[in-house]
Design a protein that fits this description.
mainly alpha
């Protein structure tokens, strides 16, 4: 790329280039991934187009379910004894099977 071509690139072009670099550095080293990820997030924030971004994200059902789950985990911290454990602290760590076994043993 020439210098004049680099000056005419938009933020979206930089994000696309960084995504390609991110994909190829991800399997190599975690230390190289985090600065790229932070730079990608910052560029994505400064790109604007917030209305379009939010509409596109809300059309993805898995993203909506994930956000509902994150809100639920955040709310679970409100009635938890431990801010570090929250929802996870009160249930067995060896899987949901053990939780259901414990639940049905108590008699619902």
């Amino acid at each position: 790329m020439t210098l004049s071509k680099i000056k005419t690139l938009s933020i979206t072009d930089y994000i696309n280039i960084l995504m390609v670099i991110f994909v190829f550095t991800f399997p190599i080293s975690a230390k190289k991934v985090y600065p790229l990820l932070i730079l990608l997030i910052v560029l994505w924030i400064f790109e604007n187009n917030w209305r379009d971004k939010i509409q596109k994200l809300l059309q993805i059902k898995s993203f909506v379910y994930y956000m509902i789950f994150i809100v639920f985990l955040g709310m679970s911290l409100l009635w938890s004894d431990s801010i570090y454990g929250g929802f996870v602290k009160h249930y067995p760590s060896n899987g949901i099977y053990e939780y259901f076994k414990m639940y049905f043993k108590r008699g619902c």
